[in-house]
């Protein structure tokens, strides 16, 4: 990842300071939330004393004592860890109770790589209106009510095998900076709907939609609003359009599944689509480009034509695939 995005740096909390006592209302809400979970391996054994700011995975504001963050992610995700047994030992399951809505200062919630018995993400998650960071990667089906989270800045929903009927719920995420849905089945989402929805996100910096079964043409909006985009991954889909014209207006793009007039571009992945047309020679003038992946497309042209402009770069180490 070319952009290091850490929302936690913007949150003031102290989870272990003995002087900080959590709010009684937050303690009550967390106890009810825990009672809905099946903690068969006793990983939440610390959730017993009266000060919830000292509990595992709980972080509090260091002034008010209000709970601002819950991090119960599985540290041994089965997709990346060599030990399925460790994954099962740390996997949380059970019921996700709406008592989370009583945590009025909650801004960070990470339940990633837990299964919760395969239940859908509850609709009440759309009522956690103060959330800025939400990571539900592989944690369940995606409800459109998440579009109510207008303060959300980070949303990770990466998973495999889930199907999303439409993309319009994204329109409500007007503060979003990071969106990852790699592996989610978006085959019902037309290229026009995708670009139209993303065009409502003026602060979006990173968009990860690899292996989402996206296909067809990629539309060009009449005006472009997501000009902060710096990282775009649309690889391993089934687009058969030419390079979309709207990308030429994104001057900040650094990592892309497509390309434009991108002076900051360092990594470009066009692989595993059906991109058509001539390989543009102007891309050779992007002097910061380090990695270029063009495999498995229908683009034409020769590399001598393609690399025109490279002589204008003071130095160049380009890795081509």
From TrEMBL:
Cleaved signal peptide residues: 1-19
Every Leucine-rich repeat-containing N-terminal plant-type domain range: 24-61
- What Gene Ontology terms describe where this protein resides (cellular component)? plasma membrane
- What EC numbers are recorded for this enzyme? 3.5.1.98
What InterPro entries does the entry give? Answer: Leu-rich_rpt, Leu-rich_rpt_typical-subtyp, LRR_dom_sf, LRR_N_plant-typ, LRR_R13L4/SHOC2-like, RLP23-like
For this chain, the family text in UniProt reads: Belongs to the RLP family.
Bilayer disposition of the protein = Single-pass type I membrane protein
- Lineage of producing organism: Eukaryota, Viridiplantae, Streptophyta, Embryophyta, Tracheophyta
- The Disease resistance R13L4/SHOC-2-like LRR domain sits at 94-253
Organism from which the protein derives:
Medicago truncatula
Cellular localisation: Cell membrane
Which key words are in the record?
A: Cell membrane, Glycoprotein, Hydrolase, Leucine-rich repeat, Membrane, Receptor, Repeat, Signal, Transmembrane, Transmembrane helix
Protein name per its UniProtKB record: Putative histone deacetylase
Query: What GO terms are given for molecular function?
Result: histone deacetylase activity, hydrolytic mechanism
**Organism's domain of life?**
Eukaryota
SUPFAM superfamilies per record: L domain-like (SSF52058)
Enzyme's top EC category: hydrolase
* Matching Pfam families: LRR_1, LRR_14, LRRNT_2
């Amino acid at each position: 990842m070319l952009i290091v995005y850490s929302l936690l740096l913007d949150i003031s909390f102290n989870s272990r300071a003995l002087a900080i006592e959590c709010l009684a209302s937050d303690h009550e809400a967390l106890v009810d939330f825990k009672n809905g979970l099946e903690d068969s391996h006793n990983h939440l054994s610390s959730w017993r004393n009266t000060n919830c700011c000292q509990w595992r995975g709980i972080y509090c504001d260091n002034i008010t004592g209000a709970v601002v963050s819950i991090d119960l992610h599985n540290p041994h995700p089965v997709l990346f860890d060599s030990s399925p047994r460790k994954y099962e030992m740390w996997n949380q399951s059970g019921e996700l109770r709406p008592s989370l809505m009583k945590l009025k200062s909650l801004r960070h919630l990470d339940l990633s790589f837990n299964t919760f018995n395969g239940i859908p993400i509850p609709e009440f998650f759309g009522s956690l209106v103060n959330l800025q960071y939400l990571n539900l990667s592989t944690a369940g089906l995606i409800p459109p009510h998440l579009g109510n989270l207008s303060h959300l800045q980070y949303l990770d929903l990466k998973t495999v095998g889930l199907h999303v009927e439409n993309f319009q719920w994204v329109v409500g995420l007007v503060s979003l900076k990071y969106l990852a849905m790699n592996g989610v089945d978006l085959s019902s989402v037309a290229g026009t709907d995708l670009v139209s929805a993303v065009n409502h996100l003026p602060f979006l910096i990173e968009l990860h939609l690899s292996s989402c079964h996206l296909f067809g043409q990629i539309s060009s909006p009449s005006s472009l609003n997501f000009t902060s985009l710096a990282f775009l991954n649309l690889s391993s889909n089934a687009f058969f359009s030419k390079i979309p014209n709207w990308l030429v207006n994104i001057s900040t793009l650094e990592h892309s599944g497509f390309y434009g007039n991108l002076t900051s571009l360092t990594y470009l992945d066009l692989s595993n689509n059906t991109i058509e047309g001539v390989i543009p020679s102007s891309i050779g003038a992007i002097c910061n480009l380090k990695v270029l992946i063009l495999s498995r497309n229908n683009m034409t042209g020769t590399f001598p034509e393609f690399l025109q402009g490279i002589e204008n770069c003071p130095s160049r180490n380009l890795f081509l695939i």
